Amino acid sequence: MGGDSLNIFIKAAFIDNMILAYFLGMCSYLAVSKTVKTAVGLGLAVIFVLGITMPINWAINTYLLADNAIVNGVSLTFLRLILFIAVIASMVQLVEMVIEKVSPALYNALGIFLPLITVNCAILGGSLFMVSREYAFGESVAFGLGSGLGWFLAIVAIASIREKLRTADVPPALRGLGIAFILTGLMGIAFMSLAGLNPGDYN
Amino acid sequence: MADTIVEPAKKGGLFGKEEKRLILDPLHSDNPITIQVLGICSALAVTSQVYKSLVMAIALIFVCAFSSLIISLLRKSIPGSIRMIVQLLVIAGLVQIVEIVLGAFAYSAYEQLSVFIGLIITNCIVMGRLEAFAMGDKHTPWQAFLDGIGNGLGYGWVLVGMAVVREIFGKGTLLGFSVMPESYVLNNLMVLPASSLFVIGVFIWIQRALDPTLVDKS
């Protein structure tokens, strides 16, 4: 059990990295990765939200929505998406209030992207992966923290590269977004080598 | 529904200049993926096959158009403080419909797309258009509906375009039919998820090289 959770944690952080293998949470990843400082702040917020929402959504899915959970013979799984997103939205609200209190500077730097963690696909995606992979409670906590860490690493790495890139000579049409995409692709391949390059796994 | 049809009629019919712009702009100069960089998350993961991206594009056009229409009709009665939650609920409801319909009529697509259908909820294009367009008082529900369709199409054609490149070079097929000659050696790089980032990077490069007004200023 303990070994399983550790495996899932490491796999989620490095091999099945949310950004570099599944492209989840790309929007804020591209928009907030211009400086390392804001990237670190957003990364930490994502780790926190993922770590909290995953167990809550696991409990909702297992004790409220599963077949025969409340009323015998009734399955409430059609409410899954709506309940998951409601949990996530309220957790993000919580994080927002905490950051505003603890570090107003970071709060201002993150701006609109803090509330937008709600629509960060990595968070909802994590919960949906957890359901489709049928994780147990401990595993879902490990998966949440692992994916959060992976997201954090990826955004900090690209922010550092983009800070350096400001002095590089990139073709005008490729500047900004274009080069950021290509960089992310290269990082994805680098991360993939952790698992061994096997295209068959990705079909 | 009545005012949705009557209002635009004053401004030159159902398909006046304004309406045409709403559909055509998102296809190129205001493309949600390559210019506004919205909705990348799901875009990249489903482009390994043309079939998957077609289903995804149709699902997104449906959700985007009808959520814009519904929110635009409701906009005067939604309190500002809870508008995000109302928007999410409308979107989540529509996505749930898509998921149930796909599960019933196109089970193979439903299986292959797995969580990515659910992730339409968090697709920034849908939310972004609701915030930026459908909630605005200047726009009629009919215009909001067209704006939803336009942005869905803008998303869809980039998605399908990327999928065509990746499927032809990666698998030598198009919609599952072999199109490349026997001697063609499959390019395994194109099957890897990372290649979609290269493809979209090159798309952005080509688009901006052809139209220098779109280049990033910073």
Write the layout of secondary structure elements.
The complex is a heterodimer of chains A (203) and B (218).
Chain A: H1 2-15, H2 26-31, H3 36-65, H4 80-102, H5 104-110, H6 121-132, H7 137-165, H8 177-192
Chain B: H1 2-10, H2 17-24, H3 40-45, H4 50-74, H5 83-105, H6 107-113, H7 115-118, H8 124-134, H9 141-171, E1 173-174, E2 177-178, H10 194-210
Antiparallel strand pairs in B: 1-2
Radius of gyration of chain B: 19 Å
Average of per-residue pLDDT values of chain A: 81
Succession of helices and strands of chain B: HHHHHHHHHEEH
User: With helices defined by DSSP (H or I, 4 residues minimum), what is the helix count of chain B?
Assistant: 10
SS strand fraction of chain B: under 5%
Rg of chain A over CA atoms, rounded to whole Å, is 18 Å
Instruction: Give the overall silhouette of chain A.
Output: globular
- Low-pLDDT segments of chain B: 1-11
- Strand line-up across the major sheet of chain B: 1-2
Mean pLDDT of chain B: 80
**Count of helical segments of chain A?**
8
* Total DSSP E strands of chain A: 0
Largest sheet of chain A: none
Count of the domains of chain B: 1
